[in-house]
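User: For a benchmark we're assembling, each entry needs the component sequences followed by a predicted structure for the full assembly. Here are entry 17's components. Please fill in the structure.
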Amino acid sequence: MWIIEFLKKSLEGRGFYPALMVVFSWTYTVVLVAVIICQVFLYIFGVKYYNPEFNNANEEIDEKKKGDE
Amino acid sequence: MIRLSKHQLFTLMFIFEVGSTTLFALGISAKQDAWIVILLALLIGLGFIWIYTELQNAFPDRNYVQIILAILGKKFGIPFILLNVLGCIWHCARNLREFGELIIITTLPETPLWVILFVFLSVSIYAMLKGVETLARVSEMVMPVILIFIISLYVLVYISGDVDFKKLTPVLGNGVKPVLKVLPEVVMFPFGEMFVFLMYWNYANEKNVVRKTAMKAVLWSGILLCLSLIIYITVLGPKYASIATIPLVETIRLVNIGNIISNIDAIGVIIIFLGGFFKMSIYLNAIVLILTTLFKIKNYKLIVILASIFMLWFSIVFEPSYAYHQWMFPFDARYFAIAYCNILPLLLLIIYWIKKKRVQL
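Assistant: Structure for entry 17:
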C-alpha cells in the first residue's frame, strides 16, 4: 500500500517516538473528522443534544456579555 | 487560588513565543524571503489564536483538559489529552536538550550534558514548586531585559556596518512557491505552540481580555521575529544563515565597534538561555497540570519532581546528537505537531459549535 511505503520512507531513521506521534496524531485526526461528520448528520436530522455543561457554558457567556454591557 | 494579571500573561506568552526561535533562522529555506514567510505565518497564527481563545471563552473557568472532556467526553477525549501530553513531552525535551547543547557549544564544552540539564531543571523545579504566579512574576522582570538586549544587539550590529539590505533582494525572486512550501512549519513553530496556554488562560484575572492579550503578545513577538530574520539575512546572507549552528550568536560575533565593543556573544547566550528556560518551564508545568487534572492527582509537587526526573532522562536519550536535533525540526512540525497544535483544536471548536447548536434545537 502506498501509505505504508510513504510512512516507511518518511520515518526512516527518525526513531520510535516520532513514528508513534505521526501514527497517533493523524489516526486521531481522522477519528475526529469522522466524529464531526456524525455530528453534522445528527444536527441535520434534528437530534437534540443534552449536556448540562454546555448550558452552563452558555450561561457563563451570557453573564459575561451582560457584565460587559 | 492561582490568579494571573493580563500583564503577567502577556509577558509569559511573549517570552514563550520568542523562546527558542532565537536559535533558528525560521523559514530560511525560502532564502531571502524568509521574513515574508514569518509575516504570513503571523497572520495565520493570529487566526489560530482566535480559535484557541474561542475554545477558552466557551468554558472560561476550565483548562484545556476539562474543555476537551466537556466537548468530546471521556471515550474520545482521553486519547486527545494523551496525545497532547506526548506532544508537550516532545517539545519540552527538545527545548531542554537544545539549551543543554547550546551551553556546551558556546561556553562549557567539557561539561557533561546531564550536569547542565540537571542544573537547568533544578531552577525550573524550584520556580514551579513556588507556583505558576511566581514564574509569571519572574517573566515580568525578565521580559524587558530580553527585549532591551535583543534591540540593543541589533542596533550594535547595524552600527558596526555589517548590515547589507541588498541581501534581501530580489524579493520573491524564486516566486511564491518556496514561501508557501515552508509556511506550514512556521505556522506551527512558534505560533501554533500557543495551544499550550489553554492550560493557563483559566488562571487569568480578567477573562474577557485573554484574547486581546494573546493577540498582542503574538503580534509583537512575530514582529520581533521578523526583525531578527531580516538582521540574520542582511548580516550573514541567506546561504550562511541557513547552515549556521546558532544564527543569533554568529551574527553577534561580527559586532565590532572601534575594537572596543566586541566579543559580546555572551549576551546572545543569555537571551537564548532566558527564553529557553521559560519555554521549557511552561511546557513542563503544562505536562504536570494535564496529568494532575486528568488523573485527579492532588499532590502537584510530587508530579513536578517525577515529571522533571523523567524529562532529565528522556531529553538525554531521545536524540543522539545536535545534528539529529536540527534534522528533526521541520519533520516534527510538518508530520505530527501541526495535527495537535493547529488542526485538532480547530476540529474541537467545530464539534463544540455543532453540539451547541444541537443543545439549542
